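ok so i was messing around last nite and threw this chain in just to see what happens. nothing serious, just curious
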Amino acid sequence: MGESRHTKVLIIGSGPAGYTAGVYASRAMLEPILVQGIEPGGQLTTTTEVENWPGHSEIQGPDLMINMETHAKAMGCEVIGDIITELDTSKRPFVAKGDSGTEYTADAVILATGARAKWLGLESEEAFKGFGVSACATCDGFFYRGEEIVVIGGGNTAVEEALFLTNFASKVTLIHRRDELRSEKILEARLLKNPKIEPLWFHELEEVVGENNPKGVTAVRAKNVKTGEITEIPCKGVFVAIGHAPATELVKDTLELHHGGYVKVKPGTTETSVPGIFAAGDLTDHKYRQAVTSAGMGCMAALDAERFIAEQE
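result:
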């Protein structure tokens, strides 16, 4: 039987939303506990240059998250390396179970579990995951020095990955099912003028082709969405960058969701459909999905939680 811990505010997740909530809840003397989850630091730990964080014209993503964790701890937030596997929202105090065996009880909960990479769902994609198929250029780009690489997608994620991969690859082919990108214009301009990147419009990934001895990718087959014609493109790496899905496994059956699975909050607040449960960051933000907006929502969640607890007392 694991130990039991009680806190006024339990923060689940450790990206910009979680750590900012930790700073603000600590300053409100709520003595919060923050449980980091499966990926401490969140998506920014797999990002290199961050150029849109106020106060830094450029900072490495992992460094930014270390700074935020250090700040939260300095304010008095207790940061625990555990993973919450269950959350009972039906009674108060709320009860969360950790993978470590620890049971956490809390007067209020701030959900900041973020989002995770989406996959296409192809059998061949699954077969070569970790052997040439990846969803993280900053994690795996280094392994493809001097090689030809393919990136799938047309939003900010895809364009950022393609640009980053030009640091290593001899050529990057960007496969997109439309003939225009959904990314920010400044990123689009950088991509279109980069001599190493070749866009392949009106195509989608049909199959990843590879060998088993040794296991690795040798090419992809891309289908023209208008004609159905298949084009085979030689490559050693395939980076799937089609966006992210909110990490709502803990609450998908207990909180109201919308827009394809994001936690719904009351407009202008971080209040969810269960009083005392608050949501911040990419878990609830289907529109902006930026580090700075996540941090802002983490601040809001801590202030909302402080107000909620005061009203209960």
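not much to say yet. The longest strand covers residues 203-212.
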